[in-house]
Amino acid sequence: MMETWWRALTFTLGYNTSLVTVGAMLLAAAAGMVGSFVLLRKRALVSDAISHSTLPGLALAFLVMGVWQGDGRVLPALLAGAAASAALGLWLVQRIGERTRLGEDAAIGAVLSTFFAFGVVLITVIQTLSVRGQSGLTGYLVGATAGMLYSEALLIAACAVGLLLALLVWRRDLLLLCFDADFARTQGFDTGRLDLLLLLLLMAVVVIGLKVTGLILVVALTIIPPVAARFWTDQPMRMVALAALLGALSGYLGVSLSSVREGLPTGPLIVLAAFTLFLVSFLFSPRRGVLASLLAYRRLRQRVHLRQGLLALGRDEPIFDGLTLKLLQRRGHVRRDGVATPAGLAAARDAEHEERLWALYRRRYPDDALHREHAGLTPIGQVLSADAIMALEAELPPTETAR
Asked: Labelling 3: which of 37, 59, 268, 396 has CA 20 to 30 A away?
């Protein structure tokens, strides 16, 4: 089993498997890039409406091709039907939001449930007809890469490359739309057309992803990689690039894992691989990860206790908190019996003096002090210039300076 997986990872398991892997990687990378812009635009739920709206068009295209050729499994026709149905669903969501008092979330819920229900009815009807390929139609719900043909894999890969190129061309315009649509309008950009372009790119990702992950799971590829990338960076273009990388890695791992054993579903494994990458980002990201947040909280708590302990020493106040005493002892500021050491008294005088400087600074410049994070815990010399500190020192009352 491990040997088979290694061969899949190194693209030596077979030409068709390698082609499917590359196609899935390109699709997932495009989905991650498009999803980043959609997430920044705060319209992530639209992808769910688009994906579920593809089902009736998919079923109708299958019926047409089945009546015409006797076999409805013609991927270009199925994708065209799914795109037409998704476009109709997207148009309805837009019109309901514009012409009624309903919010976009209510419009998405109405269109999603209606279209999906209609699609399920059509699939049920198709199962009763004497048309070849009915069993393959349900694969579009959760993906069916195992039965993917060479021509289908090439079509998906070509469409994914086209999407990546389109995103590279319009990336700056889309970023401006996501962050400040009003400013984009003042600069002469047609924000309505840019919004439509973004939704069309999203629709294209959903449609070409039907064969790989299915309409139920393709939404995950447009949401999970961008959300995972957001944990690692604040730069929008880095987030887009990282989302593409994480998406491609999800496709790579998912397809290779599905090749280990016959019958393993590729689409769900791709999504599970994406979720694993998200979980790693959620836990271990150095900026916003759970571990980093816990460590930052622990450091802040220690700084607060140490600062309060030094102030208590300077004011000759008793200290009862165990953590505060432990930190002071660790720094050599107090002995085991709680008596302050000479070094501790010196540090306490410095801390009390800094506290008076910070208090004066907050009184003199209240607006600026609001933007100083944890100003009382940071040495004042690391925040203010030497001239500003000298000015504050000059304003301290002589009796306080002499204490």
From this structure: 268
